[in-house]
Write a structure and sequence with these properties.
There is one protein chain. Helix 3 packs across helix 4. The chain is built from nine helices and ten strands. It has a six-stranded mixed sheet with strand order 6-7-8-3-9-10, sandwiched between helices. Strands 2-1-4-5 form a four-stranded antiparallel sheet. A hairpin with a 2-residue loop joins strand 4 and strand 5. By secondary structure, it is α/β, with parallel strands linked by helices. The longest helix has 16 residues. It has a domain of 142 residues: Rossmann fold, CATH 3.40.50.300.
Length: 243
């Protein structure tokens, strides 16, 4: 069974169609990236899958669970990392992660153990007990990524994962992606960083004007190219400029 299944999803904002009859299936263990120009529908699609927006039409299934009829069950399988990392300024990083862990009904001992693990992975220990009002964007991003991983979700949804991260932290995130995939978890991300998608993703979807224009592995996408383009950037430009 697919971990993500979008069935004819349409999302309108007034008269504007942001996502247009989108059909998409993501299998377990895939690292999938959705790429496309600004305004193509990437972030809207991400928010629909995460349950932050409701589709105008169509159905979203997470691990076979209907997001509309069973939202809590569907969302319990998801970890969501937005492009703008928001943390309550009056909380420390540790307190924020404790709060998120309790939202997922985790036991206190499991929350503590998991926070200790994530603090070590992302090198948060030195400042994780400071109030977050003094955090840089990159520090906030590391806490928000940790909050999405705290309950070991089956599906990790990420909008622009590398925004604000220094090279060392970005490398840590890429390594973590691979480890999550090895565990059988699934990653669905949206990014403008084509080199990242080319480096780490097993499958890539190209969206433009709310429609999915192409999907497949890099080698499969190359087969769609009239010029047999070699790089993802060349493929991306060819596909998005011809629609």
């Amino acid at each position: 069974m697919s971990i993500v299944r979008l069935c004819g999803i349409t999302k309108k904002f007034g008269e504007t169609i942001a996502v247009d009859k989108l059909n998409l299936e993501i299998e377990r263990g895939e690292l999938f990236s959705l790429i496309g120009p600004n305004g193509a529908g990437k972030t809207t699609t991400i928010k629909l899958i995460a349950g932050l927006l409701h589709p105008t039409d169509g159905k979203i299934l997470i691990d076979g669970i209907d997001m509309k009829s069973e939202p809590e069950s569907a969302k319990s399988r998801i970890g969501y990392i937005p492009d703008n990392p928001y943390i309550y300024d009056t909380l420390t990083g540790r307190e924020f992660l404790e709060f998120i862990g309790r939202l997922y009904s985790m036991k206190d001992r499991d929350i503590k153990r998991r926070i200790d693990e994530l603090f070590e992975i992302f090198e948060i220990t030195e400042w994780g007990d400071m109030r977050s009002e003094g955090y840089s964007h990159g520090m906030r991003q590391r806490i928000v990524i940790s909050s999405a991983l705290i309950h070991s979700p089956e599906l990790i949804i990420i909008d622009e994962p590398m925004v604000g991260l220094d090279p060392k932290s970005a490398n840590t995130v890429k390594k973590l992606f691979r480890e999550e995939i090895e565990k059988g978890h699934t990653i669905f991300m949206s990014t403008h960083t084509l080199s990242l998608a080319e480096e780490v993703c097993s499958k890539i979807g190209i969206i433009n004007r709310g429609k999915l224009k192409a999907i497949g592995s890099l080698s499969e996408l190359r087969e769609l190219s009239a010029r047999k383009s070699k790089s993802l950037e060349e493929l991306y430009l060819e596909i998005t400029e011809t629609v």
